[in-house]
Amino acid sequence: MPTGVTSLPVEILHEILSQEFLDEQDLCNASLACKAFTPIAQEYLPRDGDIMLRNSDAGQLVSMLRNLLANERFRGRFTNVEIDWGFRLYQHEITTPPPDKYKWTSEERAVLAILFDENNFHKRWRSAVEDIVEPAALLVPIICQLTNLRKLHIGKPNTGSIEMRRIYSSAWTTHLEELIERVIPPQREGDEGGALDPKAVVTSFPKALRGLTTFTRAYYADDDGFNIDAVIPIFLLPNMEVVELTTFGGNFNTLSRFDGSDFRCPVKRIEFHELECWSDEVARFFRFCEALEVVNVSLVYIGVGVVEDEEELEEAFSIVPMQEALMEKHKGTLKEAMLEAERNYWWFKRRGSKVRGGWKPTWWGNEDWDD
After folding, report:
1. Where does the F-box domain start and stop, copy by copy (predicted)?
2. Which of 77, 174, 221, 330 has the fewest Cβ atoms surrounding its Cβ within 10 A?
């Protein structure tokens, strides 16, 4: 006669976990409650590869990280991750989980230590994760374990505005940006150009990020946008195809570190919304790309210090350098393009063997393709 759950026949365990009233959270809890449940519960969990993580949901993040630490097969399940921070949360509203409920076991701490060393985690990140100082800090170790990760969405580009930026925590964005930015060694004074090999830089990425094909980064905050140099390494990933960024600034200074290389960025679709940058620098980035197909860029003054005063706006936000770079380098592959700067527009569209372009936004979508 069975004396406990572990002694029950597998058929009965399946019968228990296949009940319709059990949701995904119940199955996750069951997989953690008993080793006998773990392999069976995994069979009933959704396998579509998509997951949304909330940077304020401590329970979800701790449970997710605990599952990843315990089960290697679970690490390869997710291909598309979206970080949801679509609501405002102040520091005093953060619900940090009680230490007695979410205390890492010695086995989990051992796995975490290996993860920290493999991905060169800063000591303050380690402390934030080990002590669960802030739930958002758990997102980086979670991301670093998703071995089949292909799409990473941080916020929702093209849905925000300068007046409606919303995010409470710097732990997630700071840790992730440092993780990405640190794969490129800083250029020290006296270095001979500080030239780098892009392929060597990619090997410094966490293994889970090397297979990314899509990266989106939106910035919702009460201060200025993020710096483009914080995510430049993303453009070096060999399989990267789509990059969408919102509310940021800078001048692509890091690109000069690759001047001696014949490497070209493989990205096919780029969308830069609310970018404060000199158009000459954007044109330089276009030339750094191999074969762009879809381009959407809007230059706007957001106060990140790239454009010093309004007198520079007309010169800084000229569309001509960007348009010339696209036509010079990507006319053969370009399918759609929209460039916007200070209420000036330029668009390009291809249909079959015919192309159309112009400087008036009202033409977009009303082209005559018959002639």
Report:
1. 6-41
2. 221
Cα–Cα distances in angstroms (integers) from residue 72 to residues 40, 75, 133, 146, in the given order:
15, 5, 26, 10
Cβ pair 27, 17 in contact under 8 A? yes
Question: Does this model's pTM top 0.85?
Answer: no
Q: Supply the DSSP symbol for 105.
A: P
Give the Cα separation of 42 and 27 in Å (integer): 8
Is residue 268 a contact partner of residue 292, using CB atoms and an 8 Å limit? yes
Paired tokens of 112: 């975490």
Contact 274, 213 (CB under 8 A): no
Q: How far apart are CA 330 and CA 327, in angstroms?
A: 6
Residue 117's Cβ-side half-sphere holds a number of Cα atoms within 13 Å equal to 6
Tens digits of per-residue pLDDT, 244-281?
998 788 889 889 888 888 999 999 999 999 899 999 99
Cβ-Cβ contacts under 8 Å for 143 (sequence gap 6 or more): 81, 149, 152, 176, 206, 208, 209
**Alpha helices, DSSP H only, in 160-278?**
171-181, 198-202
